[in-house]
């Protein structure tokens, strides 16, 4: 027996402050109501002087509801009380309330009458175990029964119907409740301008599937394409719960002060499910276990999609796809809207698209895919309709023959003697709507056969289903819009029985979906833009009035089954109309939005909401569908959309093209954003795998991870990409900075601003110019799988895996990778062929260990993991100490780096880790051992010269730092160290060895004992020249620049244009080595051009600094090379013939020329100009770049150093330039500055290469 809470309820009432009224329950939502009508309903008329909160003027009196007649176990028999009556139909005198549990935690409260309509949706009705439980309690007072749902662990009421207002009539059902908190999320589908609902005012949201584009320009509560009666609530203590009302009739919900909500529907029962959580993630898992977990999209479906409505023909599609591909933008999918059809008829191709299949085959050869659109409606005089009739397929029908519009029906012999309800959509003639609830299965078989037949003509890979609310043009309109459209005949519109008292098309209560539009007097009906609700499906078993909201779901179910059957692969289906459980079968896009900033913002919120609804494969029409987009808006939308699972640029008929190739700036930003997305596709795919397997979200609100942080509760314009990555898109016009909030945790930057550096939590402002990626942060404690990106997902899948490690404060990180073949159908995860790897990273002061555990072994081939990038790694590693499961690993020290400034460790070695080699893989390494002063056997002043290096090295303890110098650099090095006070503690940490000439054999024998080697003398060129031409080769190994250029996704070489070196090495290269790559030459005024030209005529691109006097050389190169980039001492503007890099005037130097590419492209952190290369234009340079000059007389002036450090600390990083011929002095000053500030970028030159590595080392 449940406890009776009457005593507690009375105590509560006594404690309520007098004069504070409860929320008003609207008694007159119909337009043009007045006091007379209100009072005739027995309701209270009380106009509000200040209508800010939207309170209804006409509202129910207290006492509406039922009383408890009897109780038998968990069944409560309720009887209509003596309170106010329902104005929209007589209440049932007797109803039942039953409670039950699913598992031990999910509570079901069902109010209704046996035998009433139940939605025909096949939910799994499973649950996720949790220690949290809920209790159902009842109470009554003054002839009014109510109930509460209580969380047992906290004794908090999460649902409290003491507000009253329970109404249960045939076509009007109402339930109202107090809520424990205003932190409520969900209900849909609507365009919400904030993630959290607003309970400071009364807002009614319609829920009826309708062909209605969202209006994000202002607050708009109209119903859109789908129906999702589910919400999540965060309670004051951070616990979360979810509530799902299983009802498919037209419905609405009002959020009101209290906080409270009033739910209304016009059919079925009140079938309510409570999910206790207690975390937001568990709520979602419990809800999706009940309604069904989302499908796993094909891997390629996570690629970028290009679409538009309004292609003139196949040639225009080719042009736009080609333009995007030519811009180097990763692109996977071309999408065809109804343009490709013959007069907009399904399963047809028009003449302007002749050769479409050949182009699809060509795209398949590029590893691209194609998705066409299919609408559900089929023209009634068309072969597919004829085949449907012959197979016994069913269509939505009129209830009886007397309702059939014979003037329409007689036009179509195949439908003449049927009850098929004919409507109007895109095709020229009337259409029928397939009945996907057909219990005979014949309709479903016909739909599958039509898709198979068309697939034999056009080998599509996925399917886009649209207009499936279902949409119908011109319903109940004398003059529909298409009467004025030259591309559509004046077909007679569909008219529903709205001029009488038809209970289905004119129910007593017509919901916000009608009243919002002005009601019947404004020609607004439930049937507007759709079919007549008096229609029936499945031979009259179901009334369209009841199942209309299920149409998109039922079509998605059959379309997914057909796609998999026809292609033999899982592919992907995207549907406009959705209902709970639709995520099992299809994804969703947020509809026909508008190209404006408001819609960009609501798209961010919409994607989060649909993840709550169990549809993680979701996104928006990037750049906006309706209206003309613009450069800045499209750029920012592309950047944001790159983080949504469904990522498609799409716009409408009659508007200019808006694909990213239209604007160079958008193309550049999209390429950057897409390469980032494609690099992190293994992580994104793993998120989808977890969503499909365990019911998790992909894009999720920040509060999901931080439910106790109140600052996250309404942080709708930021979102989490799984549990590891936070995204704060730029959503306002003209913004060059972003204000955002980072919860209390460890965070690292994943974008251009301080990449890899730890960022303070709290409210911060970060730079966000259009040349940056949008602000992205990785959470401490994360090990995130990545992959070297290319221009398609299929090609990227063949590249090596990478792992980003972002440690927590304890130096630890965890992560997971799921991997299958990307296309096989998942019948069951128990039998599905996939790999699962868990990553566990742990570092200490002496070293680190990465453990990779294979918890599921598949048969799918895997690339090796070749790159590991570790943020905030405090000590330099000993690259020669690496072991893999106990065996020594030879780390490629040319491509692997450590920066003591950024604290980023980058490990890059080909075939580093074979993930299939063992169930448990352990990569271990030690840090370099730094001897303290009292341990040191050698002092920094022990600068010695040996004829044989072996002798010196053998005297060193293991792990001791070694720097090899040639004599030319000795004096400079000593001056630098002696004059740099910040290096006092370093003097005991490094042994310097001076060398002149050593044999190749001697160096090779001792090379394994060295910790760090600096190439500074030409004598070492031959000895250490790499023979693997995958890497750039010259005697300054600019490893950091290799890494930087590799990030750009471009193959390249960097060549030192030294005559001796060129003769010794260049002549021996295979000329095919340079096919289609870039060559960077970093010295001015060399000869031997003919030799280079002779050996690289086959398509290399030269990037060469030249003097003004060498312009003729450049002109000659331009005549046969693809492109040349030029810098010269007079700040000649860089040519950007291919648009690979941004154009900018920069002063040339060995450092500046290439560090500009690596650093902040529009605002380099540090530019270095040497040897008077300003060409006498010192004042111009100073004016343009605000350089801080270090002149030759500027010897160790503390005031200048201090001023520079202060400027840098304040965020105003000066550029550094010298006119001095004294390189020693230059590097002395530069080294002093760089050692004291974190600077993004690395520095090296022919005499300063050791500076870079020395700074990295410490």
TrEMBL record:
- Give the principal location in a single coarse category: membrane
Q: Care to name a GO molecular-function term for this sequence?
A: alpha-glucosidase activity
Localization annotation:
Membrane
Q: Which SUPFAM superfamilies match?
A: (Trans)glycosidases, Galactose mutarotase-like, Glycosyl hydrolase domain
- Tell me which domain of life the UniProt entry assigns to the organism this sequence originates from: Eukaryota
Biological process GO terms, please? carbohydrate metabolic process
Q: Which UniProt keywords apply?
A: Disulfide bond, Glycoprotein, Glycosidase, Hydrolase, Membrane, Signal
Q: What sequence ranges are listed for the domain P-type? A: 13-62
Tell me the leader sequence span: 1-21
What does UniProt give as GO cellular component?
Answer: membrane
The family assignment reads: Belongs to the glycosyl hydrolase 31 family.
Mind telling me what this protein is named?
P-type domain-containing protein
**What is the native source organism of this protein?**
Caenorhabditis briggsae
